[in-house]
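Quick illustration, no need to memorize.
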Amino acid sequence: MKNWFEIENINDLDTPALVVYPDRVKANINLALEMVGDAARLRPHVKTNKSKHACQLMVEAGISRFKCATIAEAEMLAEAGAKDILLAYQPAGPKIRRLLSLVKKYPSVSFSCLVDNIDSATQINQAATEANVVLPVYIDLNVGMNRTGIIPGSDAIALYRFCHEASHLSLKGLHAYDGHIHDSDYDTRKQRCDEAFEKVKALSKDITAFGFDKPVLVTGGSPSFPIHAQRSEVQCSPGTFIYWDAGYIEKCKEQGFQPAALVVTRVISLPDETTVCTDLGHKSVAAENLIGNRVRLLNAPGLEPIGQSEEHLVLKAGKGHAYKVGDVFYGIPWHICPTCALYERAFTVENNLVSGEWRIEARDRKISV
């Protein structure tokens, strides 16, 4: 019996390659739905997969709300059948115009975006006015990520009031991403997540006390997903769950998602008696982490990465190893999201055979607008 990841017609697949296992993708989608309990409360982030095929599987499973990080991802989602698309990014410059172009191109889809300051909200409102479009917005909160967002408090309420009164903005709610919380210990992660969410709850309470409607709350990412899934009042936004990766396998052991996307690489050289070199370079797997945390080779766990360049990954095998040129390794990327962005297509594997391919349309910065 072959391992789940092995490909029988591997000689038909050139490397390096990204491969996806659709049955596992579907299982991960179903697990996410089970965890959250209601498809209406799930707003997956598609920055991980960037693929129309992957998103269509989520739409077919009953998911209609999504998050994304780029205009191309937003357009890809609309083409995949999504009905509610939040650009989890504050648009500036030409990005505002591009977003408004999507609103007009797909009138049956609800597009929205984030804002975290009055100046940006003013610019977005002005552009929407000129385009004769009313654009839904969410206030982006900084709950500790310290990347974007406004600190919950009086300034956030002032921004909320401004957006509520703006002529061509439709205020929907609050967005709080807690990606800085990724402790391996679940209890520690939960405590920190709960503390961050208390700020969101307090602001939401203050907003309703001022007479506004109760805001929609969009919260969390992958590490905090099981925690927010227990809060009936929020929409949850995991992204990596659809493919999973080695980083979250190690950090989020309590989550039952299974790796559904791998990189495949071949040995292309044996520089000396202790070393093997494969074709998995920087351009083929996310390389932002230290070299030991870039890929986990499923069928060669004893190999130690010792060097990587644009097109090559060099591994220490030790004396007496039996590896030879042409050998194939299957690896779980440590970080699957930027790894997917390196490929224009992923090859699907079903019943241990390469069965087709999924375009990764939104790796491009532009599709049509």
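The chain has ten helices and 16 strands.
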